[in-house]
Amino acid sequence: MTDTSTGGRFDPRFNPAFQPGYDPSQDARPPVVATQASAPELIGHPLPPDPGSAVPDGESPAGVTGNLGEHLPAARRFDPYLAGLWALSLVFVAAGLLTIRYIADRMDGLSSSGTAFDYNLVLVYTIAAPLLVILGLATATATLFLLASRRG
Fold first, then answer.
1. CA–CA separation, 82 vs 84, rounded Å?
2. Is pLDDT of 51 > 80?
3. What is the DSSP letter of 51?
4. Rounded-to-integer distance, Cα 149 and Cα 146, Å
């Protein structure tokens, strides 16, 4: 059957294979046509228009480009920049924690015999270590906010 409201295209609801009690061995029998008395729920309810039916050949519907299977939500595609930010935040936090451990080990050696260069280097590490941890945590937090803003 065809639906006149959709321009004469085939209505898949009338395909015998999709009807209750379909028996493929009885395909030789002519199909029963639905009438107004036998299917009142179908009368007055046309199919929604097919978005691809009004598009000329060779063109795609508005807003659709490429293959339809290629479109994934932005949150599900792999983003190398986000992966880089996560890795960078881990590196910052790890470097800061390792520097704090290095400072603790070096402070014991400086108390007995240490040079001025070692002392100055430990001071620089003392300033840099907490900043590295804070920078790593801030990068991870900003990345989480970026992911949350993409979902909304």
1. 5
2. no
3. T
4. 5
